[in-house]
Known about the structure:
The protein is of the alpha/beta class.
Amino acid sequence: MIRVILIGYMGAGKTTIGKALAKELGVPFYDLDWYITSRMRKTVGQIFEERGEEGFRQIEHNMLHEVAEFEDVIISCGGGTPCFFDNIDYMNQQGQVVYLKLDPETLYKHLKMSKNDRPLLRGKSEGELIAFIREQLQKREPFYTKARYTLDVTLIDDMSKLQTCVKNVKELLNLQKTEAK
């Protein structure tokens, strides 16, 4: 059985790498934020507005417990998911957790284009954004580093490097394509 859970800061490439890995292995891919949006019939931003971060984190926790029970699956989690409740310990019990690590400068480059789509980044100036990323990483790193595996993904900026990353994840976790049942 394959159950890989990708964690890391927003903009680290969890969804991009997760989709590519799932395709390579022939298993379904679930992005936890998309799963929440589908189940709640509301965007993450709407849930944040209606229930605040605490309300969102409770929903996220509950939905994590659903998807982490699926078999033969690749899951990407939101950047904060491992940092609340017992989520990181639960993830480590349920599957192979990989921390996709990026430096703050590269994260900033990835996030500055989409900052208005992300509730925690909305309305921040460039200086505020880089400071926020550094501060958040410092707070979240102790949770991220509890993952069984860490993979530096700083240099993944094109398709060939993405394929190399997928190969590295497969080798790191000793994963093979699933057989048709």
